[in-house]
Specification:
The structure is a homodimer.
Chain A (H helix, E strand, L loop, with lengths): L12 H9 L8 E3 L6 E3 L5 E11 L11 H17 L4 E12 L4 H17 L3 E10 L4 E11 L14 E4 L5 H10 L7 H12 L5 H9 L3 E6 L4 H12 L2 E5 L7 H10 L3 H7 L6 E5 L5 H4 L3 H4 L3 E7 L5 E4 L5 E3 L14
Parallel strand pairs in A: 4-5, 9-12
Antiparallel strand pairs in A: 1-2, 3-6, 4-6, 7-10, 7-11, 8-10, 9-11, 12-13
Helix pairs in contact in A: 2-3, 2-6, 4-5, 4-8, 5-8
Chain lengths: ~350, ~350
């Protein structure tokens, strides 16, 4: 029941739901999808249900001037898939809750939802329901995803041990470099480098297949996705596992494009790599005696893995080791959704 | 990553999550709750997973001046539990996604979340995760709930047949009467009547146990919860089941308090009962040869059921029968989340 006057729009809620969800591709395990009070889903024996949700709020997480509507839709799903990947889970279903600002921008919504659907199809995810509400505020895309892991096979944040090796699944800092380039056009940076970092920000690729493979390897002791920044997310693992860590500065994978952007903006690209959010890479620990399991992964996976340090005893704290072998404490200076950008 | 300046708040996201979720009561089936990338849940063999989400947006669905923070929190969960009830499902888990307006009103959030937690405890629901984001717009409480039904036992909207009897689970129109009384103080209505309808609006009771009992009876052919209004929700059943319906005007359960409010506002209480949203009662159909199963339900359930009409062949349309036995078409004039209030 609206507390406000009728916005006199012609399109009704159910018209819009029908328009957006027409012909959704559904898995055989969807007993009842969009169109009832709730969706009904089959769940396989011996699999645990893995669930998470994440909201993208206009003005806080995205701007229409920075990303295409399709990218915004894809990204809203990708950030959720990344959380499932970090548990070693296989994505199965999604609920899409839209809070749309008035007046309704139907063209934008159509394109955003098309991007979301395409990403769902690409990852074999059935969109089984959701909700649409209107708001006087910004548009919010709030997605809940459902994945499965073999019972007991979820990779948590609290299983790391001192002595475990730390890995990341790819480039760090490029997304935050991309955001910087969207806020202010960089000068003196090659066009393709700018395009590369912008794509990292606008259209992150969740490491779903890798996450599932790492889970199946039974070698990984803890894992998290780097959404808030390496420093903050590493602290989550250390706090929950009761360990310290040392990260080797020179082992951090930072692309040439990110370094070029750092120079253009007078920012140390290392800071972006350490504290920049939105990377959506996996950070995980593995016991040294099982590290060889990584080389038996498909080459496409093993080639993207970068060892960046170790877990230590908790008394060591979380440290960064410089090229000269000296170390400093590495504070959790990444993104905080209430405090805003790192200083 | 915020696109805006740091709002210079002292409380971080993780502090707030810890504050709100400290000591959550969890079922034995929660393998991993709040505090990881995703929650991990056990799922019983032979049970289907039933999932839905619904958002409460400040200014659209609630005003802080109309309801206490505890009521707003309880209601945000209740409207979701009502959807599970309408499938005949037993609620098990919830994810709570908060989009909080800046600056943070911590006292209000604490109380709202306390109401939400109390309602979760009352219904045996484990809050297993969620998300917190900040916004320049209104506060939104977006909840996803997970329920279970025996495989094949979910009650859908599309199973009604011509000849089935139509029932509702309780009073109609009281919630919208309550909203009217919050918008404008009524004159000449007894205080307890005003309190009664306001409570119906601010703190609806989801018909969870009844919904599960109706599911277990194997007698109900279709069911929906009346969130948009009887007329609109009956149309959903009729459209999906391929039937028509006739509703007996004089059989609609309308309380004395609602009638008194109607008189005070010069509104026909029947219109509220037919088209008013937020009732959160169950509307269901049952084949006549199984109607006796309703009397074998526990008395607390059977006593609250009101037969209000029948499903018919689709050529009859959806009709309202007046006391003089004449009929009129009953249009779906309830609430539409995009169009706003019914005229």
């Amino acid at each position: 029941m609206s507390l406000h006057a009728n916005p006199t729009q012609h399109l009704g809620e159910f018209d819009l739901i029908a328009r957006l969800t027409d012909g959704l591709r559904l898995g055989n395990d969807v007993v009842r999808g969009v169109g009832d009070d709730a969706a009904v889903l089959q769940w396989p024996v011996d699999q645990h249900l893995v669930v998470t949700c994440d909201a993208q709020v206009e003005g806080t997480h995205f701007l229409r001037s920075f990303s295409s509507p399709e990218q915004i839709g894809r990204r809203a799903l990708s950030v959720n898939l990344s959380d499932l990947a970090a548990m070693g889970a296989r994505p199965k279903f999604a609920l899409v809750s839209l809070i749309v600002s008035k007046p309704l921008d139907l063209g934008w919504l159509d394109q955003m939802y098309a991007g979301l659907r395409a990403q769902a199809d690409a990852f074999g995810v059935s969109i089984v329901g959701g909700n649409i509400a209107s708001s006087d505020g910004p548009t919010c895309i709030d997605i809940t995803v459902f994945g499965q892991v073999p019972a007991g096979g979820a990779i948590r944040r609290d299983g790391g041990h001192a002595g475990d090796r730390l890995y990341v699944s790819g480039e760090l800092g490029s997304a935050v470099a991309g955001l910087a380039s969207l806020r202010k056009e960089p000068s003196g940076v090659p066009e393709d480098a700018v395009a590369e970092v912008r794509l990292a920000y606008c259209d992150p690729q969740p490491q779903v297949a890798l996450g599932e493979a790492l889970g199946a390897s039974h070698a990984v002791t803890s894992m998290i996705d780097i959404s808030d920044g390496l420093s903050s997310d590493l602290h989550h693992i250390c706090m929950q596992s009761g360990v310290g860590a040392v990260v080797d500065e020179q082992d951090l994978p930072i692309s040439l494009a990110t370094r070029a952007m750092g120079e253009a903006f007078g920012v140390d690209a290392l800071d972006w790599a350490l504290h920049g959010g939105d990377a959506y890479q996996l950070l995980f620990s593995i016991s040294p005696d099982r590290e060889s399991k990584l080389t038996s992964l498909p080459h496409a996976f093993s080639a993207q893995l970068h060892p960046i340090g170790w877990l230590t005893t908790p008394d060591q704290g979380v440290r960064l080791r410089h090229a000269d072998a000296t170390t400093d404490f590495l504070p959790p200076s990444g993104w905080d959704h209430l405090k805003g950008d790192p200083a």
